[in-house]
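Mods, move this if it's the wrong board.
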Amino acid sequence: RYKLPYGAILKVSEGERVEAGQAVAEWDPHTHPIISEVSGRIEFIDFNDNVTVQTKVDEVTGLSSIEVMDPKSRPPSGRDARPTVRLMDAHGNNIFFDNTRIPVQYPLPAGAIVTTTNGANVEVGEVLARLPQASSKTRDITGGLPRVADLFEARRPKDGAILAELTGTISFGKETKGKQRIVITTEDGEQYEELIPKWRNLNVFEGEKVTRGEVIVDGEPNPHDILRLLGATALAEYLVKEIQDVYRLQGVGINDKHIEVIVRQMMRKVDILDAGDSDFLRGEQTDYWRVVEVNKKLAEESKLLVKYDRVLMGITKASLVTDSFVSAASFQETTRVLTDAAVRGARDDLRGLKENVIVGRLIPAGTGLAYHEQRRRERDPLSIEKAFAAERNYTPERMVSRTRATEPDDSFDGDSAEAGDFE
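Not the wrong board. Structure tokens:
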């Protein structure tokens, strides 16, 4: 399955048999076409030479073309104007999109090159203007490690892309000084408005249908917006793809699973929106796996479930909010982490890998973990109790009584890996 860009020309028909390597579609990767969706007569609005548009002559071909000027370079009288191509019927009346009262018109962004003339008759599918994509292709491209660092730290990009908040139809509302108003109307009549600076490049046009999470303003997508609008799976796919693109560009092949492990840790926290019948507090931040376990128990008891939002954290912050203060202190802000742990009287159960390495113990991992733990218990039933006697304030009598009352099993007591380390 191939996703074709807007304006692609199909070379095959539905049901047709194709051969390997056969071209099925073609498009111009350097321009974004603005295509007429209805037949009608062209009417230019706010086309003022050297005010909102300028005529350029190609030195090679000698052909002239009309280009929309950037609002920043226009004279004061034309900065708030928006050159628009409107389609009229034979009687000079507005043509509306099907089942709407939205007139068929196409506001042109800065840099658009008009390919038609005022008063010309056009048919469905004809190109009205083309928007060069060279500028968008080079936007914020930072190769190598800086780009990877931005992704792993979940930084919000400057002048990032704006995503559609709802699924619906695009229309343009009343403009304000320096900004244009985009309105998304759903099938149920719900509306969402967004004010966008006029210098931003739009990826949509009036009457176009968009889906929730689709890019409507050109730029680098904000990973936090992707998580909020499209969910954790879409965000994970985006991060893995973007990070892999950087390494593949350098000829480095990395298995996806290594990046996915990091991404999973970046999304292991949630914000509680509604505690339901649980012991959580509204606004509390906790581990995703804990909420899943609690919701599972609440569902079995037919109680109100916990409502939550997934949270994306950069790897630096994700490392500092771990349950183990020993692990957190070994990473960054050691003094602050240890001071905070001392003030709170924190207890570290050494459940993870890193904290066990730091204190010089075997890591709680490996296929022989349970087997060797049981052998250790059989050799010396008090070995585990002796190791933790001082910490748990056990007396020898209490240790003996507890050991006799407990049968050895294959579970790993005290050192088993916490589920949160692998969720």
